[in-house]
Each structure stands twice: as structure tokens, then as C-alpha cells.
Write a structure and sequence with these properties.
- The protein is an alpha+beta fold and about 70 residues long.
- The protein has one domain (about 1-70).
- It has helices spanning about 1-20, 40-70; strands at about 25-30, 30-35.
- A two-stranded antiparallel ribbon has the order 1-2.
- Strand 1 and strand 2 form a beta hairpin.
- The chain is flat.
- The model has no long low-confidence stretch (mean pLDDT about 85).
Length: about 70
Amino acid sequence: MSILALALIIILIVAIFSIQNSTPVALSFLFWKFEASLAVVIFLSALTGVIIGAIIVFVIRIKRSGKEHTTSP
């Protein structure tokens, strides 16, 4: 329950921060150049971090579960 509350607080903070920073910004990544709202950039950055974190946790759990099966008789 506390993890859910913490997640909701973080989402609320990111949402408020994004809304207050809605000016357009120019982005350059490798060969791409485009302009987007800072709110969209902040949201996508936070979403990318959550997805990467979830993938890392998933991989760690799979590795731990594999070790448990190999050490058990």
C-alpha cells in the first residue's frame, strides 16, 4: 500500500511540474531535431525511467528465480 501511495505522489509531482513547464523546447538527438512541449519531454523522460526500472527489476527477479531452481535438489 505504501508503494502505491509513493507512486501516486511521484506521478502527481511529475504532472504538476510538467503543467507548469509547458513552453516549447528544441530537442536534438543524434540526427533528429524537433520541437516539443517541455511537459511532453518531462513526461516521456519519466515514463522511460519507469519502463527501464521495471525491466531491470524483472530481469533481476528472473535471475534470482533461476538460481533458486538450480540450487534446490
